[in-house]
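Suppose you are handed only two things: the residues of a chain and a line of SMILES describing zinc ion. What would the bound structure be? This form records exactly that question and the answer produced for it, so the two can be stored side by side and reused later without any lookup.

QUESTION INPUTS
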Amino acid sequence: MKEKILSLGKFLKKNVYYVLLVACVIVVGTMITLTVTSPKDNDVVIEAPDTNQPNVNEPDVNVPDTNEPDTNEPDSPDQGVISNPVVFGSPVDGEVLGAFSVDELVYCSTLKQWQTHSGIDYACNAGDSVVSVFEGSVYKVEYNLLDGNVVTVDHGNGLMTKYGALDTVTVKEGDVLKKGDEIGKAGNSAMGEVNMGTHLHFETLLDGVSVNPIQYSSSNK
Ligand SMILES: [Zn+2]
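ANSWER OUTPUT
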């Protein structure tokens, strides 16, 4: 045995380069085999997440879907204004007696003074039906000496209309109105404009500020 081990040792010493070369070939061969087979394994591993990712993405796609309505909600009022502009009907059948004028003073024969006019006055006959110019709800029913019986209708988005000088009011606060629903009968209850005779003082407010109702009329679109 010793001789065999010694002779093997001599053989290894003599052929050390060949032994190392063979060892290197084996190592390199093994590495090549591993690198050739391992990419296949990696491909499989990569494909597996790929097939999983669509599953993971599907809920992700759904999450933006559920978010989209949320992001649309703030957009929808704007879109609503664009696609469904507020167009007023006529509050009463009658000629315009006094125009809207907040920039220029107009003479008020009743009060005998120059003043602004925050609405439009329509001439009408006593008892004529006064109707809501647009859908909304009755915000307030009130009386004061200068404006007489007044109904304020809330149309949403800060838009309101006021109907003054009414003889009688046929709605109550909170009533829901469609465009054209009666809110009262025309009269001459506003002492501030009593010289006009029977008429409707019609006012439009946006965020509490009087604006020209003409901008919401169909002829202005
Ligand atoms: Zn007026």
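WHAT STANDS OUT: Confidence is low (pLDDT under 50) at residues 38-83. Residues 16-83 form the longest helix (68 residues).
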